[in-house]
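Backbone-to-sequence.
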């Protein structure tokens, strides 16, 4: 008897991959892996992006459960909620692909 595809499993995996599938989002994951938490301004400065674009990526990743945030005074600090994405990025670093 043939095994059927576990649709829930592959949908979950594809959801995470789609969420992090942008160079700046991978950069955000790297930064938040190195630093426990960072503000939008700090992340913007490290990545060299405009704040509106950084905020867009952060909001998307937060909405999808990759990141969390905490307000401290006037600042909002972001942190990795789904820490497993760090391992996923490390695995993908070892993949031999041609980037075009």
């Amino acid at each position: 008897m043939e095994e059927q595809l576990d649709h829930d499993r592959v949908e979950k995996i594809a959801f995470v991959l789609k969420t992090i599938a942008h160079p700046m989002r991978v950069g955000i994951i790297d930064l938040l892996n190195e630093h426990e938490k960072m503000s939008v301004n700090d992340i913007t400065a490290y990545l060299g992006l405009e704040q509106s674009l950084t905020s867009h990526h952060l909001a998307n990743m937060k909405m999808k459960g990759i990141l969390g945030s905490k307000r401290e005074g006037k600042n909002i600090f972001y942190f990795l909620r789904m820490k497993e994405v760090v391992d996923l990025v490390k695995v993908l670093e070892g993949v031999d692909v041609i980037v075009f």
